[in-house]
Amino acid sequence: MPIITLLTDFGYRDEYVGLMKGVILSINPTVTLVDITHAIDSQDILQAAYAIHSAYRYFPAGSVHLIVVDPGVGTGRSLLALEMKKQFFVAPDNGVLTLLFGEHDETRLVRLSNADYFWETVSRTFHGRDIIAPVGAHLSQGTDLYQLGDAISPAEAVRLKDIEPQRADTGEITGTIVSVDHFGNLISNIHHQMLTQIEQFTADNRVIIRIGSHVIPGICRTYADVPPNKALGLIGSRGYLEIAVNKGNAARRLNVGKGDTVQVKI
Amino acid sequence: MPIITLLTDFGYRDEYVGLMKGVILSINPTVTLVDITHAIDSQDILQAAYAIHSAYRYFPAGSVHLIVVDPGVGTGRSLLALEMKKQFFVAPDNGVLTLLFGEHDETRLVRLSNADYFWETVSRTFHGRDIIAPVGAHLSQGTDLYQLGDAISPAEAVRLKDIEPQRADTGEITGTIVSVDHFGNLISNIHHQMLTQIEQFTADNRVIIRIGSHVIPGICRTYADVPPNKALGLIGSRGYLEIAVNKGNAARRLNVGKGDTVQVKI
Amino acid sequence: MPIITLLTDFGYRDEYVGLMKGVILSINPTVTLVDITHAIDSQDILQAAYAIHSAYRYFPAGSVHLIVVDPGVGTGRSLLALEMKKQFFVAPDNGVLTLLFGEHDETRLVRLSNADYFWETVSRTFHGRDIIAPVGAHLSQGTDLYQLGDAISPAEAVRLKDIEPQRADTGEITGTIVSVDHFGNLISNIHHQMLTQIEQFTADNRVIIRIGSHVIPGICRTYADVPPNKALGLIGSRGYLEIAVNKGNAARRLNVGKGDTVQVKI
Question: Which residues of C touch A43 (CB under 8 A)?
């Protein structure tokens, strides 16, 4: 029962995700399909990059992850297949795999070119269905990655720039909100490892988080560490700094959104 | 092919449900996963209680139902696993299982404590992924409920209060709208068995339903029993009194919503 | 691993789709379930007709497709099961199968009447759960179509009228927008085969598309054939003429929606 996951910006209105699943099952009827999400904001490659990076580690070895956030479909952009830590990723070469390239030294990467593994006809507007889905299905059946196209080094792939938080000489960290979740929690790109030193000061409330016009003292352990409707910072389930409001919606309450800056200092 | 269902208030934006599925499949790759819904209103335990109560009876024996509506995550609240009518339920001890406790005399119930069945690390903010999902996966593999923690009696679990409709001495029934569905149908907590006596009077239109500022005569058999855009009462597919508008949206048309009162009298 | 797909207007709020899946798995636990979409606009039979027509061809032989867009539930309308090109379709007799009847000469069609294949109780408001789901599950197990009810000819089934574009003597084609997708692309009912002759003139920009108050020259090959934020016409992934805006939302930008007219002339 190999697993194929799907992560797209297709939303839930249309038949597009269903078509990808039909193509996959036409090739490999034994696969187990899992939707990671289809609600990535339209064409938001950065948001998708963090989502797949957070998700893949919860899947077993051999899983195949298809990522279709593809504003460049029909242009000259190519498609990639990556093997890393015994998992597989198929996606456009637009930077959506950036965070995965750094995960492990031993990766295998190809630029897709072998049409034997594509759908019988390839449209100009839906490579998710016509290339990514069938390639993923073949990978789930054990096709070797190097059958799919020419090997390249990760250095040759497109990478998102400036996605890491900045640390000033003063120790202050400046990050970005990369995602606002269903509950209105503001998820930053500041990984908890950057905060290890700072976190020791929590008890003294010497850590200060600035976001929008708000100043939030300290990093809490869970939502209920502050009274209802109060803002807090905590390490969210992704492992990144998250700004939340206990039993409330931080995005609405703080009037902060995706792309906004968050600063942490001691 | 054991079945695991998921019922949450996570919405569809994020990777959270996908992570739970990854955890489940990492433990039991043969499971069939079914989403009941992930659109329970944020932290609405009552709505979730009615949804799982309506849903479980359509699943075969051996099914495992995971319910994650968990405003108390990270506090001292515990988690439960329930076995009832050969089905299994894993959920926070916050009242979401209230309606199930009354379904059958022979139930088995434990408070989860055996970390052997949890994920390798347990976060403070996402017990759905770290405890409920792995415990459910182990149950689907045949792990005995009593391996998971200490047995308790249902009387020791948290229960929602005042969730049953009230019947006055005059026979009038006062209930509540517990859910507004996608079509705008207003679903009450008045079970059809409470209306058995009343329903006999339908033909004479001697039953009166009051909701908001509206008075609706009689209980119909289906939507088309009234002209388009007219309001009606009927026993919905859940088995509860439902207020609808034929080919229309009752919530919008009657300006009534969740939590509002509905009265039925002869 | 037979496949059953679901296409409904139930949305994602409620447990309704989950109940259908529970019923299916109670009858055939080995089935693979695929959601085509549950976001068909409420009771929009035409939109659903195009969606299933676009989707079915990507599924393998033996797949069973359940379509529940059913404004007439509880009235005298009947339910149908169709076998066509080795695939199966179960739906209300309300025209939602119209486009499939024309796909192939050799079809088998029955009006459902054999309650042996229905759920044990049949409600008056949810035939998707009580009839369509169990009938689909039985078909996926190999039950012969003619066991389900009396054979009828497609001519006896309800058909949607006026769903084909009109071609004037001048060669001008007048079609309709039948769906607006998640990205705001405007999907028409003008099939690319109607445009074969016209498309040859593309290079000279002698084709003119009129939609709303807008005039769009030519038919492009992909979104990026025009600059960002410019409107274009192209043959979309469904095989129909689609009006899009490169890296933008055509519905919002052109202020055009479902049901609006689109004209193509040389």
Answer: 247
